[in-house]
Each structure stands twice: as C-alpha cells, then as structure tokens.
Amino acid sequence: MKYSVLFVDDESQILETIRNIFDKFYTIYTAENGQKALDILAKTKVQVIVSDQRMPGMSGTEFLKICKEKYPDTVRILVTGFSDLDSVIETINTGDIFRFISKPWKLEKLKETIDLAGQLFDQVQAVKTKSDLPSRSFSGPAVLQSHAPSVSTGFKSKSHLLFVDESESQLFSYREVFGSDYFVHVANSAEKAFAALAQYPIAVLVCEAQIGETDGIDFISVIRDDHPDVVPILLTDIKDIDLAVRLINEGRIFRYFIKPYRKEHFVSEMEKAVQQHQNYSVKPELNIRKIEDELISEKGKEKPATLSESLRLTRERLNKRVGY
C-alpha cells in the first residue's frame, strides 16, 4: 500500500515537480498554503506531511502545530532555509517535527526520509494497537507522552540529572537551582559524563554544544544510541541553524535552550523532561527513539565500553544512515 503524503508549499511549480516525481511512489496531495492543507486533512487521512516553512499567511511552523493538535498521528517534516533559525528553535522546543530538511533538498534523501517516516508511522500504530492505546501525537522525542500513568508529585527526589559543562561556575549554578529537588551530577568533560551515565540512572542530560574537544551533538547522539531513555537538553550560547537541524535529525533533542536562561522557565521544562523519562520507563515500547532505531540500526549491538569507541560507532552510523 502506498503512503499518503501531503506536500505544502506556496510555489505551485515546486508542487508540480513534486507530484511528477513522487506520484509513482506515494498517494500525493498538495496545497499552496496552510489553510488549504488543513482543508485537505479534514477530509483525507495522510501518514506524512512535508511542509515548507516560509509561506504567506501561515508559516510551516504554525501549520504543523495545528496538525499536531488536530491530526497527532501524522509524521511531520519541515523544509526550512537558513533564515528561519528562530522558528526552527521554537519548533524543536514544542516537539512538532520528525525531521528538518534544509534547502535545497536532494531527491533521493527526501524520498528516503519520507519512506522512513511512513515506516515509523506503521510501527507506532502497531505498537499502539498491541498496547491497546488511543492514538496520540507523533512529535519526535516527546511522542506518546500522555500514555504513561501520571507520576506522583514525589518523583523528583528519585530522579537523577546530569549537567555537562566546562565552566565550574555554571555547574555550581545548576547545583544551586536543582539540588534541592533532584539528585544532581555534574561533569566538566565528556569522559566524566560518559562514566556518570554508566554509574547512575540518569533521567535528563543537559550539555553544551562543545565539550572540550568533543562535539556536543555527537555526544548527544551517543546517548541516543547507548541510553535511549535519557532525555537530552542542549543549553548553549551558540545559536546556529546547522546545529538546530542536527539536534533533531541526529540527536533527537528534547529542548534547545540559549543562554542565559530564565530560572523559572528552565525549572518548568526540566519537570517536563523528567516526566518524559518517567513515561519511557513505564512504557519503554513507546519510546519513539527506540522504535526509530529498530528500523535503521543493526540488531543486537553491544554498548561500547569507552566514549571514544561510542563516538566512532555513532559517527559511522550517522554517515551510513538513509535520508536526512
């Protein structure tokens, strides 16, 4: 059976080209703006939505937010340019997107990404059916978060947080903010953080974009591979579109925050991250990162004993992966 895919772009020529190319692979629907796309979705069931970001009237980010609320089972992909950084960060932090695709997109990689999105849709539906659960949102790392039972208000004292930053003053600040409610672990190097992850039941990892000589996104990708139940957050002063795209496509990041952070907001988002970890713990089969990895990774892989080996294997996997 062909997947039903909705493409949304304000340039009719692009939509015509897409239809000519992909019509033999998918059941194609096209719309020139967000409202027309919503009209189609009101009458038609689709598995995958591919939307441009920059459109008059309703941006891709705004459109996909509505899709998440009204059609939560859809797998959503955003096509974005280098001038859309703030919108991309906003989209990361509201959990709306499966993949970001930077312009100009490549035909083969776009098809591979849509195929993976369709397979992921099928797998999520199969898991829901097996678990006898109602349909809920597919939204990257935060998928299916409402399925797990609510965690009691005392869960904070049982949760372990790991903060990774070269700045000792920043690590001290984290202890000050979170030390009374959580078990707080700190590390000033990627190697120490890797060891802490092996030693403690870490729920949430907060790290910088660069940890010494270790690329922070590579490190987050290692955590995705080796500790898929850990919820990752990037907190950095680096604001960059390539970084943002990698955070979703490689690291499946939960949040991307720019320093300096507002304490109240950070505390609130940390509670959501801990709740996400609790949901993964209660229903591990509904962890979308695990489901995706089962589709694209080799079965039965062992966890490497060292960070350098983990980084090497993770980079090899990312280099060989299909799609964006």
Give a brief description.
The chain has helices at 12-22, 34-43, 60-70, 85-94, 107-131, 168-178, 190-199, 216-226, 241-249, 263-282, 288-296, 307-320; strands at residues 4-8, 27-31, 48-52, 75-80, 99-102, 160-164, 183-187, 202-207, 210-211, 214-215, 231-236, 255-258. It has two domains: 4-138, Response regulator (Rossmann fold); 153-320, 3-Layer(aba) Sandwich (Rossmann fold), CATH 3.40.50. The strands form three sheets. A five-stranded parallel beta sheet has the order 2-1-3-4-5, sandwiched between helices.
- Tell me, rounded to a whole number, the average pLDDT: 86
Helical content stands at 40-55%
Q: Tell me what portion of residues adopts beta-strand conformation.
A: 15-25%
- Taken in chain order, the helices and strands follow as EHEHEHEHEHEHEHEEEHEHEHHH
What number of domains?
2
Q: Which CATH top level class of the largest domain fits?
A: Alpha Beta
* Sheet with the most strands: spatial strand order: 2-1-3-4-5
CATH architecture of the largest domain: 3-Layer(aba) Sandwich
CATH topology (level 3) name of the largest domain: Rossmann fold
Cα radius of gyration in angstroms? 20 Å
Contiguous helical run count: 12
User: Which class of secondary structure composition applies to the elements?
Assistant: alpha/beta
How many β strands by DSSP?
Answer: 12
3D shape: globular
Low-confidence stretches: 136-156
Q: Describe the biggest sheet?
A: 5 strands, parallel
Looking at CATH, the homologous superfamily of the largest domain is: Response regulator
What distance separates the N and C termini? 23 Å
